[in-house]
Amino acid sequence: MGLNYRLEKNIRDYTEIRTSFDALAQRVFGLSFEQWYRDGYWTDRYKPYVLLDGGTVVASIAVNRMQTMWRGKGRSYIQLGTVMTDPQYRKQGLSRCLMEQVLRDYCRSCDAVYLFANDSALDFYPRFGFERAVEYQFSCPVTPNPEAAQRLDMENAEDRALLQRCYRRSNPFSRLPLLDNEGLLMFYCTSYMRDRVYYLPERETIFIASYDGGTMFCYDIYGGRGQTLEEILAAASPPQIHTASLGFTPICTEAGRLSPLLEEDETLFILRGKENIFKGSRLMFPRLSHA
C-alpha cells in the first residue's frame, strides 16, 4: 500500500477511523453512516476497506456481502460500494490498491462480484476485469383495488420491528430476492425511504412505494405468501394508478414488459470469470439492494 498510507479492514468499532470515514462519505457523496451505526444496523455484512494518511481516511472501497437465491439455489455475492477518494489524494492509485486487495481477499470465496459505477468511472473498472451488464426493469398495468394501507413511522420502534418481521418472510414474488440483510434494508428505510413504507394489515404484507401521477414505483414487497403479485399491487394502488414499475424482477413477467434500465451513475459491472446471471437473463438486482 506504499509507505505513506495504512490499510484498515475493520473500522466499524474504532470511533476515530469510523468518524473519519463518515466525514469523507459526507464530503464525497453527502452520505452519513453514523446514525445507522448508532441504531445498531451496521453489521458484518458491510465492511469498508480504507487507506489512512495518519489518522485520516483518504480512500475507501466497501465490501457488501449479499445473499440471494437464483433458480432455487443460494448464492453468495460480493457487491462493492462506497468507492471514494479524498479529492486532494486522487491520481495516486489509491483506489487501484484497494481494489486489488479486496479482490485478493474475496474473489475465491464468493459466486460473483459486482458494483454499480458512477458515469465518471466507466473506464476504470474494466482494468480489473469487470464488464458491463444490462439490467431490465419490469412494468405492468394495474387495476386499482385500494385497501387501507398504513404508512409506518420509522421513528417508532414497533413499526421498525414490524418491518423487520415482514422482511424475514422475504419477497415471494422476486426472482432474485435479497436475503438476510436487515442492515441494508434499514439504511434505506430510516433515511431515503422513511416515508414510503406501507403495511397492508389484512394481508400482513409490507410494500415500499412512491407515486407519480398514474404510476406507482414499488421498490419491494415483504410477506404476501399465498397471494398473487397482482393482488398486492392492486391493493397498494390509489384509484389514479394505471401502471406499476417494480424495483425487483418478478418470477413471472408475462403480465407486463421488461425494458432496459438506464440510470445515471448506476451502470452495473460484473467481474469476469465469476457467475454472471445477466448473460441470457433479463432481470435487475433489487433496487433496495444497491449499496
What is shown here, in short?
By secondary structure, the protein is an alpha+beta fold. It has helices spanning 15-29, 34-38, 94-106, 157-168, 182-189, 229-235, and strands at 6-8, 46-53, 56-70, 73-85, 112-117, 130-133, 136-141, 150-151, 178-179, 197-200, 205-212, 215-222, 243-246, 257-260, 267-271. It starts with 5 loop residues before the first strand and ends in a 20-residue tail after the last strand.
Q: Could you tell me the strand content as a percent range?
A: 25-35%
Classify the fold: give the CATH topology of the largest domain.
Answer: Aminopeptidase
How far the N terminus sits from the C terminus, by CA atoms, comes to 25 Å
The CATH homologous superfamily of the largest domain is named Gcn5-related N-acetyltransferase (GNAT)
Name of the CATH first level of the largest domain: Alpha Beta
Report the structural category. alpha+beta
Record field, number of beta strands: 15
Question: Percentage of helical residues?
Answer: 10-25%
**What is the H/E order?**
EHHEEEHEEEEHEHEEEHEEE
Please, how many domains? 2
Please tell me how large the radius of gyration is. Answer: 20 Å
Average predicted confidence as pLDDT: 96
> How many separate helices?
6
Runs in which pLDDT lies below 50 for 5 or more consecutive residues are: none
Largest sheet: 8 strands, mixed
CATH architecture assignment of the largest domain:
3-Layer(aba) Sandwich
Net shape: globular
